[in-house]
Amino acid sequence: MALNWFKKKKDKTDDSESPAAPETPSATASTGSEAGNSPAADSESPQPAPPAGEADNDSADQAIEAGDAASIPEQAASANGKSGTGLFARLKSGLSKTRQILTTDIDELFLGKKLVDDEMLEDLEERLITSDMGVQTTLAIMEKISARRSRIAGAAALKTALKEEILAYFEALPEPAPEAATRPHVVMVVGVNGVGKTTTIGKLAAHEARKGKKVLIAAADTFRAAAIEQIAIWAERAGADIVRHKDNADPAAVAYDGIDAAISRGTDIVFVDTAGRLHTKVNLMEEIKKIQRTVAKRLPGAPHEVLLVLDATTGQNALSQAKMFNEALGVTGLALTKLDGTARGGIVVSICSSLNIPLKYIGVGESVDDLQEFDAQQFVEALF
Length: 384
Description:
The protein is an alpha/beta fold.
């Protein structure tokens, strides 16, 4: 059936596969530094800003997150508990485009029919692939649905069967790593250009501060124009401390000083921001490995989490990103953003079925509360 679907769709291309463009290093210096460059950061010498042809490009991230920064006062109000919409309602609203494919079309499949037939199975397969569940995941789900087709009568029964099969993928995932017994708990946040990484850190900082925790952000994205200023705004709104150096400073040195400051201040949790980087650029991946080594040098056992931020709108390209970052850094958790801007909510199922990595957070909107801890049961219910 998948072959028939590809024949029908052969003229269509997936624009989500196009790689991000390289970033131009910032030439503007930051005004102030809370900590100096530490010589103990790493035995390797600090690396200068990468050449224009190899640098990261976070222009899309910058444009999107600049809008986020402008609306931070409203988001901060939400962080203080002034939210008028329930979490499940926001999740359901954010997944409305995917739900339209999976629910409306499934209802239409049963028009004039009572039982599941071969034509209906083929149409259902097409809809699952369209929602970006991936070919292999879709085929596996369809095999199980086909085996129980004689017991499926009506659209409601088919939706129930799909929920059960999808939920099984999430239930097979390992539990997220517990917080470190010692303080601070260090979370290193990584991802390619434009995924909303800085915004995600800001929202997570607000969530943790709301719980009464003392939060610090290490602004180790020193190459992207205005990145330090942007994360500083988020830190201020969240009530978090920040350690920053000047633009183009060695990111590993910033991370080292951030951990050092957190230890001395009795901080509960540290978020280490890193420059967005193309996962296919070996030299840039080596730089982020250096940050990981440096953090471990200052605090053995850290980082306790490596959180990879993925953009749901990139579809199956997000899966290849996850595989390469996991091979390089040992990713411990995922955050999937921008689910409200795509009909490809099935990518959540595809990623979880392909990788043995816990999905910790999903983003279904721009406000602080629209970044939610992933709840598999609620997510599946919101899909249908």
